[in-house]
Amino acid sequence: MDAKKRFHSVRLNKELCKGCTNCLMHCPTEAIRVRNGRAHILDERCIDCGECIRICDYHAKVAAIDTLEDIKHFKYRIALPAPTLYGQFRNIQDVGVILTALRELGFDDVFEVARGADIVSRAISEKMREPDLPRPMISSACPAVVRLIQVRFPDLIPNIVDIRQPMEVAAEIARAEFCKAHSCEPEDVGIFFITPCPAKMTAIHSPLGQEKSAVDGAISMLEIYGLIRPMLSRIQREEHMHGTSTSYGIGWATSSGEAKSIFQENALNVDGIQNVSRVLEEIENNKLSDLAFFEGNACTGGCVGGPLTFENNYVAKNTIRKLVASTLARNPVTPQQSVPVSMINKYPIRLDVPIEANPAMSLDENISVAMEKMTRMNEIIADLPGYDCGSCGSPTCRAFAEDIVLGYAKEMECIHKLRDKLQSMAEQMVEVAQIRR
Amino acid sequence: MSNTLLHAEYPVEAEDYTCAGEASADIKRKLKQLGVSANVLRRVAVASYEVELNLVIHSDGGVLSLEVTPDRVRLISKDRGPGIPDLDLAMREGWSTASETARSLGFGAGMGLPNMKRNADEFDIKSKVGEGTTIQMGFLLT
After folding, report:
1. CB-based contact A40:A32 (threshold 8 Å)
2. Which residues of A touch B115 (CB under 8 A)?
3. How confident is the model at residue A343 (pLDDT cuts 50, 70, 90)?
4. Of the ranges A424-433, B60-69, B104-113, which one carries the lowest mean pLDDT score?
5. Are A32 and A23 in contact (CB under 8 A)?
6. In CATH, what number is assigned to the domain containing residue B39?
7. Hey, are the CB atoms on A370 and B34 less than 8 Å from each other?
8. How far apart are CA A352 and CA A155, in angstroms?
9. CA dist A186 → A180, A409, A436 (Å)
């Protein structure tokens, strides 16, 4: 299995983990178990959505991510700010202030991912014109949602739009333009995405639908926030760069931004990974076959709700809404008007490696063996209390039964079973004691 | 069936919209755990949901059963009535006798039975007014 080699940004800090059941209960793919007093992440199931980072009160779940130090490995450095970064600062009239601040941090160039989103929007609009597409088409923008589909909804893989993420498209263009302007080699340029989530970091190291990512690393938005916050008021007064994206590209930071950018009326947008799961179930049941496009975001509110953001996601969403309105007033163009069709064919934009199903949920490769295990699992479940308390370290009684069958757990690790057993043993001892008297 | 390896039964009550969809959701989960291919999974998902909802909307209640053998998945829906007077008409796309309640919930487009037939590799329906309807669907795994 190549599962062992899989890169994950979401990791555990063993020292800080108390072994509580918070992350256990919130993982959308049941990828966490508590064993020997601390959490373990099942590599093959983890989709790097970051739900556990958000929920952990002890900050024991962390994102492995690059820092500003890491950009020094490259001769030239380019920052790719996700539009979500703009939502972290209230009262910003022009995104150029933030772009200038990023330059001052040591980047030679800044390329807006919102501009990449404009190009991707145009590409998806074109894609949606193709005949006989499965309905609904599912956005490929949120890597956590794509991985959720691989693990839990493999039958929906054909519905995923085969267009790259805005970050990838932005990186391709940024590198090509920079090398042309500065007559340098592509490998001298390090491209770093300023990310709101660990899922994007994982997408860089284990790309979805493409052989290799065009991005070299990802820096947490939290780190960048802390550094540029104090710089902004000064830069605002000075001459600064200007943003180049449309208001629609900026809107990708929030849920529904993508659907709006492709001007697809018959679209549904859903945010929050559990909500996304529920709607994917409905798509699986063919209940939403009248829908043309489905945009799912793992985080509440869209990328503004990412676990590596500072600002409250509702506040950030409102900030983005205002920024979209003021940008649109100043520059009333759509991605379809601002991006010529020639542009979408100039750089690699289609996913060219098939997205595979991830069989992490199956009990065995051999269906007959899997059936035997399931039969045993059902017998075990019938004998468990059904409290789903998590005390055994598995998220539900069903998952516990599954773990027993797979050899990862033992029945007496259920404290309720253990208590019953102790009680009956105690009763037997009393009986024995009474015989002797 | 002597070679049946896995069997599960789900009672489905008439007009019970609270639990509607739970049987097919469990069937889907089981098949995913068995590692059934994406293509079969998708077709069983659609057909099991349709047949479950048919029991809720049109029948007087019944039982949905799942049988899995290494070579096929079988879904059997048996209801207690009322039975379908004209099967040819019922199999026609767009034909529906769904109640107002069902229609207000977005059902009753008359695609249920045709959808099941289209998605299953084997399809058989038998019905007798006053007795009930039995639908058998097979999905080949090999």
Report:
1. yes
2. 286
3. confident
4. B104-113
5. yes
6. 3.30.565.10
7. yes
8. 19
9. 10, 50, 88
Q: Does residue A206 contact residue A356 with C-beta atoms inside 8 Å?
A: no
B1 assigned to some structural domain: no
At the topology level, CATH places domain A1-63 in Alpha-Beta Plaits (3.30.70)
- Topology match between the domains A1-63 and A364-437: no
Tokens of residue A254, six digits: 């929030």
User: What's the rounded mean pLDDT across residues A308-317?
Assistant: 96
Query: In angstroms, what CA-CA distances link A364 with A56, A98, A109, A361?
Result: 32, 51, 50, 9
The answer to whether residue B110 sits within a structural domain is yes
A chain contacts of residue B32, beta-carbon cutoff 8 Å? 152, 154, 361-362
> pLDDT tens digit string along B18-59?
888 899 999 999 999 999 999 999 999 999 999 999 899 888
Instruction: Give me A402's structure tokens.
Output: 């599954």
Q: What is the pTM of this model?
A: 0.92
Containing B63, the helix (H) or strand (E) segment is strand B62-69
Residues of A with CB under 8 A from a CB of B: 152, 154-157, 281, 284-287, 357, 359, 361-365, 367-368, 370-372, 374-375, 378, 402
User: Chain A to chain B, count of Cβ pairs less than 8 Å apart?
Assistant: 66
Q: Per-residue pLDDT tens for A353-396?
A: 999 999 999 999 999 999 999 999 999 999 999 999 999 999 99
**CA–CA min distance B80, chain A (Å):** 25
Is B40 domain-assigned? yes
Q: Minimal Cα distance from A155: which residue of B? A: B38
Has domain A364-437 been given CATH number 1.10.15.40? yes
DSSP state of B14: T
Residue-range domain boundaries for chain A: 1-63, 68-346, 364-437
Taking CB atoms and an 8 Å limit, are A154 and B115 in contact across chains?
no
Can you give the residue range of the structural domain that contains B11? 6-140
Number of structural domains found in chain B: 1
